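Tokens for chain A. Residues wanted.
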């Protein structure tokens, strides 16, 4: 029996959550790293879009999807370094710079990416975890990209690093108090620049996932605001890498709601289903908008805590 009936909806949402959550996971982990060092980077949307374009272009020209992922990560590092260096200057607002770099990244991506809208680049490989089932829907739901598994491993590694290593201690000290960091002989600006560059690399990889696996093509609308939504996701996850995994799956499930309902014939109000991630983002922002809840667990040097 291959017809799941109404069970096709939760199965499709599960598969969609895994596919859609991967960019959320990488961007949110990058933003956790950046914000734990005491800096907000709202430019990750532009970094993600430019990474998607750069990854797709390099993958097409080189014939290797993994070369595209590396190129996207490098592009993210460059944008992160630019953000970190500018924000280290006196009297510079990191939120304003983030918005400016978001516009710069998307503009450059649209300009340089025009020749790559039609060409077909190689796709990233996936692991078929549903091989045991003869039901096509289950097989499709359990087709997992390697980057999703890498993201979970990265979240586990980051949680351990922040809790139990010297590097994690340095990040937390810099993020909580610039004065305390300087008293320990640390260089807060240099550490924040490095954290912002690493966070940019994660966002670039998220962009490569979008263009090289799901949806698997380069277009100007490839992101749909996922870079900005991931910033709200970080607040929802309370700056905890492990919570980012569950939050990303929640956002991914919301993004998969529309296709899942359409798969069983519920097509009335089709476009409203696709608003679910944005409604969820709005709900998260409202739920965390009170002064006490918004700053609970936030690093002391973030702009939202001052």
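Reply:
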């Amino acid at each position: 029996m291959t017809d799941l009936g109404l069970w096709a909806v939760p199965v499709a949402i599960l598969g969609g959550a895994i596919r859609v959550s991967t960019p959320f996971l990488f961007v949110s982990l990058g933003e956790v790293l950046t914000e734990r060092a005491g800096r907000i980077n709202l430019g990750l949307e532009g970094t993600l879009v430019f990474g998607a374009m750069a990854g797709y272009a390099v993958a097409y020209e080189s014939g290797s999807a993994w070369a595209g992922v590396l190129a996207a990560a490098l592009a993210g590092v460059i944008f992160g370094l630019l953000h970190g260096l500018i924000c280290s200057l006196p009297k510079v607002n990191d939120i304003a710079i983030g918005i400016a770099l978001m516009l710069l990244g998307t503009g450059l991506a649209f300009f340089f990416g025009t020749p790559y809208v039609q060409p077909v680049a190689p796709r990233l490989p996936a692991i078929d975890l549903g091989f045991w089932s003869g039901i096509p829907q289950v097989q499709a739901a359990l087709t997992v990209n390697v980057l999703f598994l890498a993201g979970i491993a990265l979240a586990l590694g980051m949680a351990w690093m922040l809790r139990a290593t010297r590097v994690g201690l340095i990040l937390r000290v810099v993020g909580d108090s610039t004065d305390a960091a300087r008293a320990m002989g640390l260089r807060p600006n240099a550490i924040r620049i490095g954290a912002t560059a690493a966070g940019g690399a994660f966002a670039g990889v998220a962009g490569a996932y979008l263009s090289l696996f799901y949806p698997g093509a380069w277009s100007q609308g490839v992101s749909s605001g996922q870079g900005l939504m991931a910033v709200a996701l970080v607040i929802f996850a309370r700056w905890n890498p492990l919570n980012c995994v569950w939050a990303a799956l929640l956002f991914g499930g919301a993004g998969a709601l529309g296709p899942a309902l359409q798969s069983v014939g519920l097509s009335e109000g089709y476009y409203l289903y696709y608003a679910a991630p944005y409604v969820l983002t709005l709900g998260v922002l409202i739920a965390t908008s009170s002064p006490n809840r918004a700053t609970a667990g936030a690093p002391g040097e973030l702009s939202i805590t001052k």
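Residues 8-36 form the longest helix (29 residues). The chain has a mean pLDDT of 87.
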